[in-house]
Amino acid sequence: MPLLRLIAENIGPFEKLDIDFSDGNGKPHLGPHILAGVNGSGKSTVLRAIAWALDKGKHGFPMEEWRHSLRPVGSKTLVQVSSGGRYIDAMTGDTDPESADELHEWAADLGFADSGLAATHSGLRVGAAGEFKLRGESFALAAYAPSRSLSHVTAPAASPLPNGLTGCLAFESTVQNLAVQRWLVDLFARRALAKEQRQDFEFYERSLNRVQNALKAVFDDPDVRIEPELGPILEPRLHFHGRRLNFSQLPDGVRTTLGWIADFMMRQELATGKSTALLLLDEVDIYLHPRWQRVLLPALRAALPDVQIIASSHSPFVISSCPDAKIHVLTVDNDGIAHAQRPQDAPFGESVTATLRDIFGVESDFDLRTERDLKEWDDLKKAQAAGKLNSVQKNRLIRLGEDLSSRSEELRLIVSSPPKISSSLLHSLQSSNGKRAKKPVVRRRKAKLA
């Protein structure tokens, strides 16, 4: 169920919001779609507006917290989705049924009068197997925010498995710790039993490999793998950096990423008959080392080829990492009102410095103090070239140059003057190149006649 468009009014920092998730030709784009902008520009609001429209009060969406993002009147969201080439609108506003007519009028004003909006709620429903169904087509759906939900449990094999929709839009608490570990233990156990009884075990093998291959790619380590601990407790463990760790022993970046990857793949498997899926990720790069940030989205794109991914990020490594990504830059004006810019192609092939400048508006490569000192040094150099330095400024220029040079080799190269080549060094260089060296000319001063 890929999205085509999100339209909203009076939510969070937005008065009006219109985000295009299409490929530009009227078809959904699987992305990844990356939301970028300063704090307070509404990145998390966009993700939660989508979840609000699809939750219908049944799938864990944190409604009580979300109410603080709504205006007293007029807060509404419309999500346009595609299903087998058909276009259907899912929308929500106040929970009061009396607001339905107003919402329908709003949708009609947006040009959706002929799109079958009245039938949306009967078209968007929950199937018996725990999956969303849209006009008969099923899909998986989940939303995640940074969370250390995974932890060691004493008896994962005894935990019940949920359906694919249990708490799927809860963000911080979407990851079902007990269920994920029960699911992984089940896969190991069923694969072993199927092999022993000479039955088909490929389904369990594929499920395990999907999780493990995704982790290998994200963490850029072919030795990362999930292994069963047989005693005294049957539990999954992660082989990481040569150690077998339970889920409470994992580093935060690994724990968080493994949590939502395994949880989402479990939900996909539990949503029987699924064809496509939607994955919402808030602050996808948190806790991750820059080396992992660079490979995260390409790894997800390979591991989840049929999933539309919409994520928020503050990392230039994430934003410039995936060639097919669409970047949605959010800005805030002087009145504190947020605006969504037109989507642009990812700056694939550009340097991180260029991404910082073009997407994040960070002009300097250095820290604030160094940026300030370089500006002063540059101004003094310009004054020196114009012959306008006094003695105090000359001394300041010298001290600044020495200070900047001592901070890093990069700064030393910036502030250092081109070196002078002595006649003896030039003579030596010419000799090493096989050229016949000329004797340096020694000019003698004539002695003054008495």
Your description of this structure?
The chain has 450 residues and is α+β, with helices and mostly antiparallel strands. Helix content is 36%, strand content 20%. It has 14 helices and 16 strands. Helix 6 (202-218) packs antiparallel against helix 8. The termini are far apart.
Radius of gyration: 30 Å
> What is the number of independent domains?
2
CATH fold group of the largest domain = Rossmann fold
Taking the sheet with the most strands, its summary is: 9 strands, mixed
Total E-strand runs = 16
Structural class category: alpha+beta
Rounded to the nearest angstrom, the distance between the terminal CA atoms is 104 Å
- Fourth CATH level, the homologous superfamily of the largest domain: P-loop containing nucleotide triphosphate hydrolases
Order of helices and strands: EEEHHEEHHEEEHHEEEHEHEHEEEHHHHH
The appropriate CATH architecture of the largest domain is 3-Layer(aba) Sandwich
Give the overall shape.
globular
CATH class of the largest domain, anyone?
Answer: Alpha Beta
Range of helix content:
25-40%
User: Treating each run of at least 4 consecutive H or I residues as one helix, how many helices?
Assistant: 14
* Low-confidence region ranges: 83-90, 114-123, 439-450
Rounded mean pLDDT is 80
Beta-strand proportion:
15-25%
